[in-house]
Automatic annotation (TrEMBL):
Region span, Disordered: 77-100
Positions of the MlaB-like STAS domain: 5-68
Record SUPFAM superfamilies: SpoIIaa-like
Domain of life where this protein originates: Bacteria
Source organism per UniProt: Oceanitalea stevensii
Entry protein name: STAS domain-containing protein
């Protein structure tokens, strides 16, 4: 629960101060609906598009199926823009244990 509180505080501060947000998700292995809800609030309330840095397949899958990926910028570790996972040739959604 500490992580959720920290995320909600960070979203509140970013919106309050109207600053661009970069979300480094390269080491994320699990993301639940509370995180997606907080990111949705950030997207709706901010005047800046959040940038996701190096999302692993599980995060890209969630961004794609929730369509949040259409509302954020996604970049690789070399700051190069990446295509949405659904646009990659031969991309197949994988099964992940995401529930909770």
């Amino acid at each position: 629960m500490v992580m959720k509180a920290e995320l909600l505080d960070a979203v509140h501060e970013a919106v309050l101060h109207d600053v661009p947000v970069e979300v480094d998700v390269r080491d994320v292995t699990f993301m639940d609906s509370s995180v997606l809800a907080a990111l949705s609030r950030l997207i709706q309330a901010s005047t800046h598009r959040p940038t996701f840095i190096s999302p692993p397949p599980v995060v890209r899958f969630l961004l794609d199926v929730t369509r949040i990926g259409e509302l954020v910028d996604i970049v690789g570790p070399d700051d190069g823009t990446l295509e949405p996972a659904s646009a990659e040739q031969g991309s197949q959604p994988r099964e992940h244990a995401l529930g909770d």
